[in-house]
Prior knowledge:
The structure holds two protein chains of two kinds. Chain A is of the alpha/beta class. Chain A is 26% helix and 24% strand. The longest helix of chain A has 19 residues, at 2-20. Chain B has one helix at residues 53-68, and strands at 2-11, 14-18, 24-28, 41-45, 48-51. At the A-B interface, helix 5 and strand 6 of A face strand 1, strand 2 and helix 1 of B.
Amino acid sequence: MKKLQSLLAVLLIISAVVFTGCGQVNLPTTPSQTSTPSVTSTTPTTPTTTPAQSPTSSSSQPLTVSFLNVGQADCTVIQYGNSAMIIDAGGNSGATSLVTKLKNMNISKFDVVVGTHPHEDHIGGLDAVINNFNIGTIYMPKVSHNTKTFEDVLLAIKNKGLTVTTPVPGASFTLGGDVQCTILAPNSQSYSELNSYSIVLKVTFNGKAFLFTGDAEVDSEREMLAKGYDLKAEVLKVGHHGSTSSTSTEFLKAASPEYAVIFVGVNNTYGHPHQETLDKLNAAGVKIYRTDLSGGDIKFVVSGDKISVSVVK
Amino acid sequence: MSMKVTIDRFEGNFAVCEKADRTMIDIPKDKIPVEAKEGDILVIEGDSIKIDTAGTVKRKKSIDKLMNDLWK
């Protein structure tokens, strides 16, 4: 009998750990998933934090979304209270200065890290971010690339004892309990080019939405439209540095943003952003912010139901 | 004197390639073999640029092996 009692006690402890060990970041669950990811913590260095208290309909804390000026590369940082998420981490050459900048933003931990796809202008600084900050959940599409840049990221993840979560379209998680994040792409198992594997993420807070598209191209945009996802967003991170390979008329219409942000390097060799994309955005009356022209980081703040934008130099 | 680079991506008329020291160089598409794809390792010798097919296959195997244990 005593044996049975202690066994029951052990079981109770185990279930308590399993049900409370998830912390702030809820792992994705969709009805179609047969095996849900394990909820055991993969980062012994990440302290478990308690979820935000009493979520009300409109949070009093502001949400900040910073589009960092990292040249011809992408890097977005989302902060809410003590929670933070990073979507892409710039190129190889900017890694050291990115780490300094992130530390100056008083960040010590990223609850969520998204590497949209394995190109160097998106994941170049990701190994440095993983090595220098406490890391929660990492989302990257499961597609390989032969560069040392990609291998560096994999090794950083491995050396820290972390794992990567495969993005499942339709799955959601929250940042700090109140910021809703939904994965919208990639919707296919394989594509002819790495850009289309880009994770597309919609982040909604107090009724204001941001759509982060990575380098998703027209093929991926069509899939998101065909799936009937709600693509409406106040702020659109324009796909693939404003190249004509993204931002189809239909996709832009579905998003119908008020603001567009284009990550693009000054006098870049590739002619980004393409005039055709700028014309489309202008015709739709969208306010365009470009990292090459801003001379600083482009910072959005959602406070209550208001959204504001400024350039931080 | 030969140099090996890996094609990271294509942007417009350029193949953006990663050198051994992880710096990036733009090579005009018309200088590389038409069949070259993202992830291919290129061997540059003077004006000649060829795909290192065996090296590319070997590299992919090694990366895929590293990936297998990391994704859930």
